[in-house]
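Board notes, transcribed. Complex of a protein with glutathione.
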Amino acid sequence: MYTVVGAVKSRAFRVMWMLEELGEAYEVNPAAPRSDEALKHNPSGKIPALLDGDHVLTDSVAIMTYLGDKHGGLTAPAGTPERAAQDAKTLWLIDEFDAILWAAAKHSFVLPEDLRVPAIKDSLKAEFLRSSATLSEQLEGPFLCGDQMTHADILAVHCINWSVGAGFPKVDKKLWDWASGLRNRPAFKAAQARG
Ligand SMILES: N[C@@H](CCC(=O)N[C@@H](CS)C(=O)NCC(=O)O)C(=O)O
């Protein structure tokens, strides 16, 4: 049985959703970022971490990649052009979605107050909207990487949800409807119920 360290309302949700999609059992240790419990598993105090027996894995995307490869689901096989395209999409989402939302969080509540530059948030919101329009344009099939769901879909939907919570402008209707469809998946709902 896996243990996910981190609460539902954090990047740990990505790992929970992935585990639900894969049908793997897990328990949740809802440790807060930088808490003693988080520091026990990751010297940076960041969450999520995944406990797999004696192994401690960190970083939500590294964990999803590990789980996908290990259980043979939600990923193209390693060493294929499809996997390279999936990795490129995942890294694009980290650059253009996650990093922008994280920068906004840092300048809202993560950094010490004297280091926050609230004015940066307007440009981050504009950048996110531009990136979401690009993603929307590229969206052709039911999933970001074609006919099969991958962890890139989990990452994108999690970031779109996060953008709502962060008060960012709403993504366009096509992308919003697509994300809503994925939020209706039983695995999404089951992960959310862990909160
Ligand atoms: N790239 C990492 C980022 C993890 C991360 O920054 N998590 C936040 C909570 S969602 C955190 O622990 N922040 C505390 C900190 O940065 O000190 C991942 O995707 O797991």
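The CA atoms of residues 89 and 152 lie 7 Å apart. The radius of gyration is 17 Å.
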